[in-house]
Amino acid sequence: MVEGKSFVLLEALSTAIETFERIRDESDTGGSKPSDATSHGNFGDVSTAQGLKSLNAWLESRSYIAGWTPTQADESTFNALKKIPDESQYPHASRWYNHIASFGAAKSQFPGAKTPIHGGKQDARGPEPSQSEVNVKATVAPDDEEEIDLFGDDEEVDEEAERIKAERIREYEAKKAKKTKEAAKSSILLDVKPWDDETDMSALEANVRSIAMEGLVWGQSKLVAVGFGIKKLQISCVIEDDKVGVDDLSDRIQEDEDHVQSVDVGV
């Protein structure tokens, strides 16, 4: 009977460690996880004007759909859009779209469970339970009605079970140590102001885009009137925070003294 209890205890311990590993891995993503649309603004069908309006309002004060880093919620919403949102009507959704697009194929590696899309919005039912959760429920409930005390006397826990437990923990720690975290990125909007209305804005923009730095990707740009016939260049970019500093980038742009008067971080 003791051997039978030890076997069941060993199986329960194995699946519990697997579940613990999954929870720890999810927590490594920064505490954020994708959530369905109903808990994040209820965007509806983002391929419609009403859905885009809701999405734009949600992103007005946020960088991502959920949390502080990109997740599968961002990829699902991105894939549901038919095209880039009109910047004049949905500036925040357009900014977010360009930022997510800059990740390219890496979007599929965003953390979090993939949430299916139905009719342009995320499924409010949430992800199906994982196999490890099903295994835990099946293992903890034995076929017979005999109650098993997982926290019983030490005399009932054999040395073999303890050895396997320690080995599993060592394997988990070694696996976790090999993981590399994705570099943090930021989406920046820069206002580049010329000296006067006679400044060659085409040459100004060309000089700005010629700046190449590791971790810097230039995005869309446009000319914005500021008065008296003068227009400023408004240009977006995505930077890796550990490689590119905003101050350093501004200094590089202002080296073009023939065209650039000043550089500000836009709102």
From TrEMBL:
GO terms for cellular component: cytosol; eukaryotic translation elongation factor 1 complex. It comes from the Eukaryota. The keyword Cytoplasm does not apply. Residues 150-176 form the Elongation factor 1 beta central acidic region eukaryote domain. SUPFAM superfamilies: eEF-1beta-like (SSF54984), GST C-terminal domain-like (SSF47616). One of its GO terms (molecular function) is guanyl-nucleotide exchange factor activity. Coiled coil: none annotated. Residues 24-46, 112-133 are annotated as: Disordered. InterPro entries: eEF-1beta-like_sf (IPR036219), EF-1_beta_acid_region_euk (IPR018940), EF1B_bsu/dsu (IPR049720), EF1B_bsu/dsu_GNE (IPR014038), Glutathione-S-Trfase_C_sf (IPR036282), Transl_elong_EF1B/ribsomal_bS6 (IPR014717), Transl_elong_EF1B_B/D_CS (IPR001326). Keywords: Elongation factor, Protein biosynthesis. It holds the Pfam family EF1_GNE. Residues 185-265 form the Translation elongation factor EF1B beta/delta subunit guanine nucleotide exchange domain. Residues 29-46 have a biased composition (Polar residues). This is Elongation factor 1-beta. It comes from Gonapodya prolifera (strain JEL478) (Monoblepharis prolifera). The lineage of its organism: Eukaryota, Fungi, Fungi incertae sedis, Chytridiomycota, Chytridiomycota incertae sedis.
